[in-house]
Structure prediction request, 120 residues.
Amino acid sequence: MDNIFNKISISLIVLGIAFYAFAMTFTALIPSILGLLMQVVLFLGRTFPKFHKHFAHINVLILILGMGATYGSVADLFGYLLTGSNLARPLATIEQFTTFVLCLVGFIMAVKSFINARKS
Prediction:
């Protein structure tokens, strides 16, 4: 489980830094902030193994918040692909969509891991 969160958080950090290099705006770093927050929670989970499950659930909550904050980009991007309408902020939309996909994949994998742990 920690491996999943670690990979997703590092991907979010790299995504934010890469888009910051292009856009040079603070909001481009929001995925990096999510990733750093997940890394802090992972560290706390390793430091306090008794509460490891609680920290895993906090990471899932962070992923859900990331999806909730970026789900609007999905409609924008599909609208662009289907109708050809212009995007107001193309780089921001692409970054938000990528953040949404990363958070969604992490959430699905976490739920699958929770289900498998419950079965065994």
The chain has a mean pLDDT of 94.
